[in-house]
Amino acid sequence: MTPRVCLQYSISYALCPKFVKSSSSGRHLSVSVSSTTHKNVPSPIQTKRRMDTMHGFLVPTYTLHDFDDGEECKVVRMIFQMSGVPYEFKHVHRDDYILEDYPFYALPALEMNERKYGSVLSICRHLAWRYNLSGKTAYDDAQVDDIAEKVFEVRMKIKNWIDHIEHAADHACDEECTENTAARLLTDTLFPCLERELKSAPSSWLVGHTMTWVDLLVACLVNPIIYHRPKLLQDFPLLYLHNEKVAHHDDLVGFLYHVRTRKFQDKK
User: Fold this and answer.
1) Smallest Cα–Cα separation from 255: which of 209, 226, 219?
2) Cα separation of 13 and 17, whole Å?
3) Are 259 and 244 in contact (CB under 8 A)?
4) Domain 138-248 has CATH 1.10.760.10
5) Average pLDDT over the chain, rounded to whole?
6) Same fold, 57-131 and 138-248
7) DSSP symbol at 132
């Protein structure tokens, strides 16, 4: 019997940062193809499955699920926009959806190659890793996560207040909508921390010398506050200028409110 030739492929990627090649289109995975001789040749169906698996890993298809306003997933959409990655947005009606269809019974959720992933922060981390919006070193990545966790924690605490000042549809006021509670949490805790991070950063970005996904996350929180309650930022000039920089970014037009150029006086 004459042996037949088949193609074998393998996918590998380096875990050590110095071996990972990156570009504006995302991280590169090395794919090797070798020719070997086997008597037992895989069937066409097996070969197609393997090739589909390889292609799906390298070039995923994305569907983002969220409610009609899409406010909670705005940072995810901004990552896609910055990376030039196509995706489908599936509108979910609040009165007509099944919780069990989504991870942890919550939205937003990202469907990637027909598998769904939940949690805004975990989705952002994964996409940032793929498309070069994470920290450039392990230390920077840890700092990005540290800031992101705190910002998202505060975001969830004042979510109803944000909806209140944004006049969101179907908003129901409660004790969280009081100005004093939200303002105090921001001006006494979060804003001073972010101002300190920006002051110690080597650039106008929060971590490192380039934009990371945590810059987008912070901008999503701070931007409507600048628009509706600008006085809350009067003691945090670096945070204000950071939001202005993100809001005016050429690739993010239409995502955030326009931020007026503002001059701050130096405190003596």
Assistant:
1) 219
2) 10
3) yes
4) no
5) 82
6) no
7) T
Beta bridge partners of 65: 90, 109
For residues 67 and 250, give the distance between their C-alpha atoms in angstroms, rounded to a whole number.
26
Residue written as token pair 């090739």 = 51
Mind giving me the DSSP string for 88-104?
A: EEEEE-TTS--GGGSGG
Whole-number Cα distances in Å, 119 to 2, 128, 133, 172, 186: 54, 14, 18, 24, 23
Give the tens place of pLDDT for each residue, 51-61: 555 445 567 89
- Fold classified for 57-131: Glutaredoxin (3.40.30)
- What pLDDT score was predicted for residue 157? 92
**SS3 of residue 203 by DSSP:** coil
Output 12 or 237, whichever has higher pLDDT.
237
Structure tokens at 93: 């009606």
Q: What is the pLDDT of residues 64-109, one digit of tens each?
A: 999 887 788 999 999 999 999 999 999 888 787 787 888 888 889 9
Query: pLDDT of 132-176, one tens digit each?
Result: 999 999 999 999 999 999 999 999 999 989 988 887 766 777 776
- At 153, give phi and psi (nearest 5°): -60, -45
Write phi, then psi, for 37 (nearest 5 degrees): -110, 125
pTM, rounded to two decimals: 0.78
91/266 Cα distance (integer angstroms): 46
- Sketch the domain layout of the chain as residue ranges: 57-131, 138-248
